[in-house]
Known about the structure:
The protein is an alpha/beta fold. Helix content is about 30%, strand content about 30%. The protein has a single domain, classed as Vaccinia Virus protein VP39 (Rossmann fold, 3-Layer(aba) Sandwich). The protein has six helices and seven strands. The protein has a seven-stranded mixed β-sheet.
Amino acid sequence: MATNEFDSRARGWDKESIHWERSKAIADRIIKMLPANNKIKALEYGAGTGILSFMLSDKLAEITLMDNSQEMVKVLQEKVIENKSANLKPLIFNLEETEYKTETFDFIYTQMVLHHVLNTKLIISRFYDMLNSGGCLAIADLYKEDGSFHGEGFNGHNGFDVEQLKENLEKAGFTDITTEQCFVMKKGSGNVMKDYPVFLMIARKPTDSH
Length: 210
């Protein structure tokens, strides 16, 4: 995932209302699936400025917010201090380059990040290894689109065929995989706006896994 673009957009990220609307839609669905015990240790991968994690912070015991953009994490650190969010732990780390072996998690989630990751199978495998037995993965991202969402020069994925993504998760060992549409992004110029639906895919690591 290229960090230069995200470094330059970090300071203005929270000013874009679409980021809040999308995060709220995803947060609402995630909250419905979480147990009420508040004991879950979570990781948001590609956390950016942490909009989604702030919305989930009172439902989770601890959240590690991992991102490889220094500027995004800098903004995030400032917000954590300002909001006195002691259970949010910002972390600069590039999971595409290095395995993360410091700790494991009960829940890993990511929004609009996977389509920037070139080797999705590797990241899915690393998510699996980072989850505790019985842990859960939530991926929110674009359904397959025609490339117009990012436009020319984008070298990531133009959304995902959810059946193919599900197959990749199953190959990594995940089970109980469900998918639902959770949001529709509108993007374009002038009067020509296009809908880009976003899915939320939930998968579980079997309880007898290590």
